[in-house]
Amino acid sequence: MTKNGYSISDLERMTGIKAHTIRIWEKRYGIIEPCRTETNIRYYSDNELKKLLNISILNNSGVKISQIAELSEHQINDRVVQLISSRQESEELIESMLHATLELNSTQFNKTITTAVITHGFENAFSKVFFPFYEKMRIHWLTGVINAAQQHFADSILRQKLIVALDSLIMPPDPNGKRFIIFLPEGHYNELCMLFFAYLIRKTGHKIIYLGQSVTLNSLNNVAGIKEPDALITTFTAPMSSCEAEKYMQELCRQFHQPIYLSQLHEGQLQAEYPFNVKVIKTMEDFKADLLMRFPL
Question: Quick count: other Cβ atoms within 10 Å of Cβ 142?
Fold first, then answer.
């Protein structure tokens, strides 16, 4: 991608459609229309990329390009939504990500991420596609289908996407915003879920102190002594028993009396009893509703 937009090679890489084919479609059917720089270099906008991705979905599903060319952009979008719904598209995207992970195919992996975001929106893509993908990948790792290198491959790409999205939220926090400390307990390292919560909280106008992986209780207390939090958010990503989880949360609640959010977005989470100030998050909607109720701006 250039500073002006996407080159035709970018479109080829992100949609899987050959540059030669794109040029033919462009010339014969006028399906997409490039922009030009002052020096007459062709480039394509985000809208053209999204349109071409939708066209690719329809074409790969057997709809002739001549038929697609007769549709308006709105009709193309509607056809894609209908097609995706009828085929349980989320599951297909998850399977596509798993296949790309097994093959270490970054082009396919990134293309599937783009399709998921365009289809569902950034936030819903995580709850409907990326987190279920992660659960399946975890199971495959436990059964030996996916190895550590393949898992790190998927981790690094999704983590990078979230960091870019988080950095893009350049608006200053609301003056009345509350402060959230976000962290993983000692010995826990998969921070994808916590990065997503950091994104959601910053987007609502609240303040975040993101501590990341494997944070000891002593370190957590040191940070809280400098910047007292209004709430804490954490999750468990390493194998542990219900007894261990309960013991850890009891100690955390003994040291912090603020609301503590414990994410259990993934399937198969622990069935444990937690202290009264622990709010277990099972869905994003659950978290957003509680955030608005407890910390209105």
Answer: 10
For the beta sheet containing 260-263, the strands, ordered from the edge strand earlier in sequence to the opposite edge, are 207-215, 179-185, 231-235, 260-263, 278-281
pLDDT of residue 222: 95
- The answer to whether the CB of 213 falls within 8 A of the CB of 234 is no
CATH code 1.10.1240.10 region(s) in the chain:
89-167
Judge residue 182's burial from the number of C-beta atoms within 10 Å of its C-beta, 0-12 exposed, 13-18 middle, 19 or more buried.
Answer: buried
Residue ranges, comma separated, of all CATH 1.10.1660.10 domains in the chain are 8-69
The ranges of the chain with pLDDT < 50 are: 86, 267-268
| Domain 179-294 -> CATH class | alpha beta
Question: Residue 101 and residue 99: Cα distance in Å, rounded?
Answer: 5
Supply the pTM of this predicted model: 0.66
pLDDT of 262 reads: 93
**Domain 89-167 listed as CATH 1.10.1240.10:** yes
CATH match of 8-69 with 3.40.50.300: no
CA dihedral sign, ordered 288, 292, 294, 296: positive
Residues in the chain: 297
Q: What is the pLDDT of residue 209?
A: 95
Contact 284, 265 (CB under 8 A): yes
Radius of gyration of the chain (CA): 22
pLDDT confidence of residue 74? 87
Alpha helices by DSSP H, 69-130:
73-86, 89-103, 106-120, 122-125
